[in-house]
């Protein structure tokens, strides 16, 4: 068996690394894949992270190769330590994403490749002399962030290396737009469409007061990055005045958003909620959403 080699990413690796990333994406969200252009762009900068990306001082991509094949890959970031950087990011190093095929009959030594690559990642973080070492699974695809439960092999590789989950867990939900409610508006309630912080906003008004709003984003990726996610949108914000809980306002907001999404030829809608918010999770599942997966955010290197 030829020896495994861990080395820096080369442009000739782009197709194999993209295929490896897309295999992981496909296990989390249906019908989504990324192009080679998307992957190459992400290795250079992350326009979808306008706050944190300018804080990055250095980035590198490593791959494990065997028999001429890229069998594992990882992307690492080092954040600056100056005052312009957010306090929690100052001087931090991060494994932005880490992918490899799980063990299989045709490739029984995949864990060896993963561990060898992980060792190289930790060596690079040590060389950068970062104050803390974090990890995630933020592949450049919609809905992929944190460390999804669908990647037990990646989670095991992180655990073997000494990474521990220290953050929150979020539930990712998916609904067919056709299954969302179509509740009529009662007298006195109007819904206005405007531009919101995270997409198109629909705000419910009654008696001159805003009662709640929902924001939906239909541009989950920049068009030039060629992500295959046609027909997919997400809920950026959903807020209802506590006094309106139980009145069905959430369903009516979803109904207006669904009507708009149909005009946009969107057939699937994604929602994200922390697993502790049982009230909102119940509202969403009652409106036609199903749990797609759970993802754990915030992994820190705590060996021993």
From TrEMBL:
SUPFAM superfamilies: Acyl-CoA N-acyltransferases (Nat) (SSF55729). Keywords: Acyltransferase, Transferase. The keyword Acyltransferase applies. One of its GO terms (molecular function) is acyltransferase activity. InterPro entries: Acyl_CoA_acyltransferase, GNAT_dom. It holds the Pfam family Acetyltransf_1. Residues 164-304 form the N-acetyltransferase domain. Its EC number is 2.3.1.-. The keyword Acyltransferase applies. This is GNAT family N-acetyltransferase.
């Amino acid at each position: 068996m030829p020896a495994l080699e861990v080395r820096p990413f080369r442009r000739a690796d782009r197709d194999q690394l993209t295929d490896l990333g897309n295999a992981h994406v496909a296990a989390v969200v249906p019908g989504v894949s990324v192009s080679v252009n998307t992957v190459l762009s992400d290795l250079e900068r992350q326009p979808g992270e306008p706050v944190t990306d300018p804080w990055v001082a250095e980035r590198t991509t490593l791959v494990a190769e065997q028999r001429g094949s890229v069998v594992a890959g990882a992307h690492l970031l080092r954040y600056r330590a100056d005052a312009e950087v957010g306090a929690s990011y100052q001087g931090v190093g991060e494994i932005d994403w880490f992918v490899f095929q799980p063990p299989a009959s045709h490739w029984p030594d995949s864990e060896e490749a993963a561990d060898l690559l992980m060792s190289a990642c930790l060596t690079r973080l040590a060389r950068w002399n970062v104050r803390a070492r974090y990890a995630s699974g933020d592949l450049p695809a919609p809905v992929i962030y944190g460390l999804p439960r669908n990647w037990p092999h990646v989670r095991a590789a992180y655990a073997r290396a000494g990474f521990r989950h220290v953050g929150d867990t979020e539930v990712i939900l998916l609904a067919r737009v056709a299954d969302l409610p179509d509740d009529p508006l009662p007298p006195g309630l109007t819904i206005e469409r405007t531009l919101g912080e995270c997409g198109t906003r629909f705000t419910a008004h009654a008696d001159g007061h805003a009662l709640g709003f929902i924001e939906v984003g239909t541009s989950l990726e920049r068009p030039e990055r060629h992500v295959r996610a046609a027909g997919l949108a997400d809920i950026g914000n959903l807020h209802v005045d506590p006094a309106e809980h139980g009145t069905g306002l959430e369903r009516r907001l979803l109904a207006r958003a669904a009507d708009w999404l149909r005009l946009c030829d969107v057939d699937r809608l994604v929602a994200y909620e922390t697993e502790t918010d049982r009230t909102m999770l119940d509202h969403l599942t009652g409106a036609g959403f199903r749990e797609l997966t759970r993802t754990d955010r915030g992994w820190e290197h705590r060996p021993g």
